[in-house]
Amino acid sequence: MKALAVFKKAVLEQARDWLSLSLALSTAPFFVLLYWSFTGGGSTTYTILLMNMDRPVELAGETISAGEGVVEAMESVKYSSGQPMLKLVVITDRDEALRQLENRDANALVILPPELTEGLLSGGVTRPEITLVGDLSNPGYAVAAIFSGASLDAYVQAMTGTPPAYELNEVALGGSADRTEFETYVPGLLIIAVMMLIFSVAMAVARDIETGTLQRLQLTRMTAFDYLVGVSAAQVLVGIGALLFTFFVAWAIGFRSVGPLWAAIAIGVVTAFALVGIGLIIACFSKTVIKAFLVANAPFLLLMFFSGAIYPIPKLGLFSVAGHSIGMWDFLPPTHAVVALNKVLSLGAGFGDVLYELSFLLVLSLVYFATGVVLFRRTQLSAQD
User: What CATH number is given to the structural domain containing 108?
Assistant: First the structure.
């Protein structure tokens, strides 16, 4: 009977702690729904940019266009469920195509030459060169390249009746061709080092609440802004230290940056400010260190899996601003940090090439920090009055 009494007590206490209970019940289903949303309920569709410069050929009164045939062949590649494997986007501006590849808005670029049809009809006398461009450090590129190559081979063999009679020229973006598998993971791992600030910020503030330090500080007429700026500055230093130490370890075991290291550090610093803001928001709903740790797990997992730090995530576009596609995950700060770090560390981009990502990160930092200040004033300081 004593066990039954303890059971009833535990159930009542758990019911009162609605935040922990809701997180325990809903976190996994939430991730299931998110994964379903970006796979469309099936499997990932890879975006292929296509520059079709092929010139059709008139033969026996019939117009033959291998370029159009390649387009149809790629569009016909589907999963067994009928869902397309490739999303084909016809593009005419190569510079715009390269920009989309660098931003990971697309997985690969296929360029069909003007003499494609003529070369394929020559019976092997001339072999047209098809160009495949991509960021070799992007995990999605490998899959997109395989699907694209397979559809090209199948179409050409069906058209000519012989093994593929063309040359495939693979062009790597920046220094991505020289990156080892280990080096392709480093940008995401650097961001995870900074993401740990979510825990340290939330737990540091919760510790002040739990021990009564916050109440004593209020006697000095301290404002929420003063307190949070002080805590944030200290935590940003922690984030910078974690970033530098992680990079040092990676460097010591073989990692080398193609672009300027100072630009990568600048990206990490701005990302740290944004993540500190998220940590402050978590602290607003946590009065103990343990609760802060438990609550922080949910946003940490969200940021880790849906920012592209660990696993490449399809960009679900919502709208465009100044030529930049804004996706569902762009409101997660690490999303921009991963893209920017990859540009610098793997593609050799400079500071000016990541201004868009840095600008977006700065805006998100201000939004999250301001939200944290307002919520903290209402949920914590007012409760201490």
Answer: 3.40.1710.10
